[in-house]
Amino acid sequence: IAQLDSMQTDNAEVTRGKQLRQDALCCSVLLRDACVGDAEDLEYASFGIDSLTKKKSSTFNMSGLTGSTNGHFGGVASTQSTTWLRQQSR
Questions:
Q1: CA–CA separation, 77 vs 2, rounded Å?
Q2: More confident residue, 41 or 86
Q3: I need a labelling partner for 90 at 20 to 30 A (CA). Which of 5, 7, 19, 66 fits?
């Protein structure tokens, strides 16, 4: 089990967690202080789980629907990292 601090600058915990998993150095990641009892707990926990477990491209977005259904055939993924209020108060 790897332990990583939560809410790092530029979502570094996601990058490092994926790298550890890819290199087969760990199969589980604990995000320290992900849940502390504030309003961001649920949103961050969902973000962390989704970011670390999905095989989502960091450069290309594709929804589960086909372009013929929704008119969107994918696009460029956002390169902006998520800024958390808790992170700003550190």
A1: 27
A2: 41
A3: 19
